[in-house]
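User: Teach me something about this protein's shape.
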Amino acid sequence: MAQAEVSPLRTQDTFMDRKPVYGILSPSPPLTFSGEELMHASFMSSTGSAVRVEINDIEESLLPSTSAALRRCKAQVLRPYWRLLSFIGWRAFGRESIYYSKCWKCLNIIYPVFVIILLLFAYAYAVIACQGRLNIDDDIEPSTLLPLLTTKRHHPVSSYPLPNITDYWNSTQVVHAIYTVPSTPVSRHIAADETPHCYHIFTSYIVSDILHFLAFCMGVWIFRCQENEELNALIEHTFLQASPLATGSITQAKMIKSMRWILVFGGLWTLSTLGLHGLFLGTFHVYNSATLEPLVGSVWHYVILGVELIGILIMNSVNTAVVINYATQCEMLIYYIRAIDRKLQEKTADLRVIMQDVLRVKQAISRLNGPTARMTSLCVINFSELTVIGLCLLILNKFKDILVWIYRGCFVVVWIAYLVFLLVQASRLNSTWSKFKQSGLEVRVFGYQTCTIQELDSFLLFMGSTKSHAKLFNIPVKPSYLLGILVLTTFTLLILIQTNVIVKANWFL
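Assistant: First, the predicted structure itself:
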């Protein structure tokens, strides 16, 4: 009897946590096994198997297919995103492992606690070190010395009995001569090597930290406790709307490329926050600060600064995870709507199928406006606050040092980047949805395949009743709203600058 010949096997990850084995099997008679052998093989495959075996067509590696595109998406997009979630404690380690050992269980208990401790340390150290120098009253000009002041001081001159004075003054008196002496110069600001004094701590630091920690707790609940996989499901549904051999602007390759650009943008932003913190340390000479030196000593102070950098990395990685999750879902929904719109214009799908797709989009946007939007709104508040404070410090800055100007400018650019990116993604989604609804009106005018007037009216009524917009703070984010706010803010700043309200008259502003 001929034996089955198997070619060298190649292991590759699948999209939904599977590890298939590709192989070419030559025809052979069926092999028979006893019942005990089958039970033993089943037990060994469920407990001690190194890989999960799945038989796939060999042509998938040669011809493009949706399953191959999904596996590529998992390797290039989802896996880096899952690593980010694991780094900030939102995803358990070892979820993709076949054998979940006790080491993974211990790590998944200890690591989230470690992340929380680092976050709390970063919050506290930001207040102690007055991180960012966000006090608009005192941090807009360099440390200057006040001019010499004249102060009246009482100085004892002599002590002697006063003759020929009434009994009330017959006792020994101390005569105080009043004379004027120059006072010592008083610095309006602290020196670089002294402990900084922060003002407006609650509004500048505590409120921001509370909102950030609430967003972190919501992420733990959504991704770790509930094991939310809405992004994975949305990617699968969107990929099914595009054919592997399709060309144009709606292809699976372009979807993967767009998501990878979002990941790259998030990674660059996170690294830029570390560079911004290093620029802050160098600009204001905080590396020589004696903030914690009286407590732990000069050597350990640098260790604490290193721990602070790790805390800042985790803190900003939380912001990045929130932004990537929200922006990627918006991007996938935009592709989904465009794919439906193309089928509607080309009249290649049944009207009932299009209505089903529209209903799925509405449900996906409703889920996006749930806990994900609330978590994103908390981060948007932080981004807005830091952007406004940074703009004020940049406009009112009186430092002559070029490093201070660079730091103030980079501070605004870093925080406004995420703010604008989130608002633009939400507005693009709402704009695409509005354009699609306009295409639905054309169907009623020009007809659709062999549909009757009653069916077209039913479709038009369905499209009109389907109202769904991406929201932040429970407010629809529309391009018209953003443009109006931008114009109003620009003209307000222009008027304040021209009237010398926020800055004095100078040759530049």
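Now, about its shape. The longest strand covers residues 150-160. The CA atoms of residues 127 and 205 lie 7 Å apart. If you'd like, I can walk through any region in more detail.
User: That's plenty for now, thanks!
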